[in-house]
Amino acid sequence: MKPSAPPKTYRVKSFGCQMNVYDGERMAELLGEQGIAPAPEGEEADLVILNTCHIREKAAEKVYSDIGRLVKSGEAAGKKPLIAVAGCVAQAEGEEIMARAPAVSIVVGPQAYHRLPVMLDKAVQGGRATDTDMPAIAKFDALPTRKKRAPAAFLTVQEGCDKFCTYCVVPYTRGAEISRPFSHLIVEAEKLVEAGAREITLLGQNVNAWSGEDDKGRSIGLDGLIRALAKIADLKRIRYTTSHPNDFTPGLIAAHGEVDKLMPYLHLPVQSGNNRILKAMNRQHTADDYLAILEQVRAARPDIALSGDFIVGFPGESEAEFADTLKIVDEVRYAACFSFKYSPRPGTPAATMDGQIAPEVMDERLQRLQSRIGHHQFAFNQASVGKTCTILIERKGRHEGQWIGKSPWLQSVWVEASAEIGDMIEVELAEAGPNSLKGVVKPRLVTAA
Ligand code: 5AD
Ligand code: SF4
Predict the structure, then answer these.
(1) Which residue's C-alpha comes closest to atom 5 of ligand 2?
(2) What residue numbers bound the domain in which 416 lies?
């Protein structure tokens, strides 16, 4: 490749999970430190980072078509952007990307992006750079401190996964489970709060497997970390995602009843309601094990909103086995759920299992599942009407004077108020829709002195 001028502007396009959103923000901060600015809306950037997701569908194909599109739009604007592919597709298929897409200068895995500046230098000189090493803690140590933040921020506390569910690429793309050290997390959380964050969502592929030592050298789990973070005065809300049932501890369940700042929302995927399928998925728990945890969490925090992930059409899934998934959805009455058609991932055990399910069957099952999920979500929203709660304002609504915030139960609530982003206002939930609610600011009673 020919040498090019150092990039002045960048754009990071993140796909997939919240951990990718977090990584995308950190890459942006790193580029900011190098004097590279975000490209203004509607303008071609000098450097584009595709921060990819490999979890489902034709992830790699999508990356190649995105690259093709970038080259075309660059040509139309008379420039040739530097293209970097980051994230899990880079980790899984880095070499192939370099071979198939000459327009790509940089391939950088999720554990190596702290070395982007060096890679960028090489790319500017006309070279190509690939880095898919996995020294996870080194990455966090090398990143700059946190800058101005939105009121709701993400904080990666744990990365990687040792569970090896048979359908999942994460253990291969994100590597083994690691926990970031307690002191680093407290410092990063304090910085986020100083910069304006009022809510922090602790992230990890298996966030409840986080473990560490507190400032007194005591071994603690995620509940201990949550209790320590709750002491940061201006931090008002704490959430965490995603958890695995087998890493749920009594301490974490208790925290849901005891820590006011821990929001009443739990995302705990089960994937299927059928024990034979759970076994074939290597989930290492039964449907009843899962339900027992939810029962305890509900006992600790009766108003908790529950959410989960489901896969339909796992190889060999019969109609009766799928019916068990519908059954568990009805039993739990989730407030929200994510549901997916099984997608064979190269290199995972399930991809070569017998009994792959026809796409039409998967489509039909997904539709039925989503209709049950939608029913329970709407019912949860309707049951919230009449409650008074605080919402954290995150963005403007469609009309002047309208604002959108999140309830403690992670529902989107819109309200007419004189407010600004980051405000926490008390509202009465007045009307429910399937995906959001209308809040009304409670008039304050003013008593004459
Ligand atoms: N096919 C479909 N869904 C998947 N997930 C993970 N791997 C696959 C796959 N191969 C889903 C699971 C997981 C969520 C993040 O993505 O439900 O919890
Ligand atoms: Fe994937 Fe299973 Fe690990 Fe979740 S627990 S990241 S589904 S392997």
Answers:
(1) 163
(2) 388-447
How do residues 278-292 score in pLDDT, each as one tens digit?
999 999 999 999 999
Amino acid letter for position 100: R
Between the CA of 100 and the centroid of ligand 2 the distance, in Å, is: 29
CB 335 within 8 A of CB 294: no
CA distances, 141 to each of 111, 187, 188, 214, 335 (Å):
12, 12, 11, 18, 37
pLDDT at 449 over 60: no
The reply to whether ligand 2 has any atom less than 6 angstroms from the CB of 135 is no
Pick the atom of ligand 2 nearest to 271's CA: 7
**In this structure, is residue 4 part of a structural domain?**
no
Burial 388-398 (b: 16+ CB within 10 A, else e): ebebbbbeebe
State the DSSP H helix or E strand holding residue 190, giving kind and residue range, or none if neither.
Answer: helix 182-194
CB 205 within 8 A of CB 228: no
| pTM reported for the whole predicted model | 0.92
CATH of residue 331: 3.80.30.20
Query: 163 and 171 in contact (C-beta within 8 Å)?
Result: yes
Q: Is the peptide bond prior to 249 cis by the omega test (within 30 degrees of 0)?
A: no
One domain, residues 271 and 318: yes
